[in-house]
Amino acid sequence: MKRGDLLRQIEQNGCVFIRPGGRHDGDQNPKAGACQPIPRPREIKEHLARHILKRLGDCPNPASEATSEPAPGAASSSPLG
To answer: What pTM was estimated for this model as a whole?
Structure first.
């Protein structure tokens, strides 16, 4: 995920920038009182982005996490087996 996209989503959910840093900036959710460091690289891994959003009291969009693969053990409808 792009850092700018993550910051935009964090700000839309009411979080505020609290401090700059060398490798990380700090953001806070005033409603929940949670603080979380945000890394400076332009690309942030999806797993880390979800963790940051969760720690700041925001639920990630479940539709973006949906996969097109069937669940393990699901019946296959293919004629081969």
So the answer is: 0.65
